[in-house]
Amino acid sequence: MALSKSLYQLLISCLIGWMLLLLGPPALAQNDDIQLIPEGAPPPAPAEPEIRGMHCTPDVKEVETRRPIPFSCTVDFPAAGVELRYRLEGASKTWEKIELEQSDTGYTATIPCTATAQHGTLKFYLFARNDNNKVIARVGRHENPLAIRLMEHSNAPPPALPGQAAPTRCYEQNECPTDLRGTPACPGTHAVKTKKGWGASCAASEECQTGMECMKGSCETPAKCDNDKDCAEGGECDEGICHMPSKEELKERLGPPKHHWLGIHGGVDFYLMSAAKGVCGTTSSDSQHFDCFDGGNEYTGTPNVNYAGAVKPGMYVANVRALLSYEYMFDRIALGARIGWAFRGAPKNFSPLHIEARVHYSLRKDPFKLNFRPYLGLAFGHAPVSASSQVLLLDCVSGDDSCISTNDTARLNDYLHDPSTALERTLNAYHRGAGFFFGPSLMLVYALANDSALVFNLTAMLPDVTFAPTVGYELGL
User: Fold this and answer.
1) Do residues 122 and 197 touch, judged by C-beta distance below 8 A?
2) What percentage of the chain reaches a pLDDT higher than 90?
3) Residue 21 pLDDT more than 60?
4) What's the CATH fold of domain 262-476?
């Protein structure tokens, strides 16, 4: 009885297994692409279905350089617009875009010669969008665009729209006709502006040929003149020829010219001193041009003739000057005068008064119309220069003739051991400059407005070789 029961259970188990085998494995086992999603993560977005319904011609793989590439597209669905995007691989990372024009037969656009001027690979794709700006059809994709090889020479027929002739190949830069420069037919060129001839209508003189002016709306030969009154209204006499200033010229004008200018200036003299010996004595020729001082007291002692002060050659800082100026400026001429005071001169026998007359000529025509106005001229007047140098001497305080005349170093050392006989002293030797000066002068004026300017002057004062730069401010009246 027990055996029959066990046999019965075995038969039931076999029957159940056979039925499961017929039904197959559970549904989970049938999906080989299933991915486990971590707990809490959003489910993956379904893959975007393939978009179709758009057809474009021509379908070309190879095009000659400098060839326009026309496109004609049809869309199976109602579209709000169709757009073409393209770029030359390696030349630009930016996609250029063209909105296709709609017609009865579809949408058309042309990639211009400027995009096909050099050989390489031209990438492109097209897509149509609906009123919600959603893509509803495409040819190619941003991630996987179509490609056209651009070659200098190709046996492939040039691209053309259905039933139309292929667009003409564009010119090379060196073959482009003048009248086509700057047009799409000549990529990489710039339009040549041709000047208008006599009698042509104009708005400014820049439009007319060389030697002509725009007078009352037409290009004409300008009249000769002596002053502005000889020219038509609005004209001005420029070197004997009437000139009509353009709007750009008038914008740059500083205003009506000012002829009287008052200024204040300051500067430092730089004196080029030559080598000199015995400057604090009385026996050398150099001593006639120097005065020696111990502080503010003039040296009146008797030095040893061989150790009476020596000046080294070089550029020395001399006087500091404060000046007032007046300039009368007309045309390109500037007549002026300056008066002032010099500081840091010798304690005695130095005239600090500065009186100067000057005349300058502008290096640029029409200086009153310009901000920067350089002048070159001459200056002369009374302005002594006093430059000093420290010198070392042996002062024979006893007046002993042997101390004054000896050049025996041993004996001089013996004198120095006796302060009542000789002393070693350091003095300031001031050069006595000439009472009057003359020389070339450079004046640089930078007009802040028509009535105010910053001024730099540089005068070479002769016969003493002194460079006298000054900076100042002038006010036009």
Assistant:
1) no
2) 50
3) no
4) Porin (2.40.160)
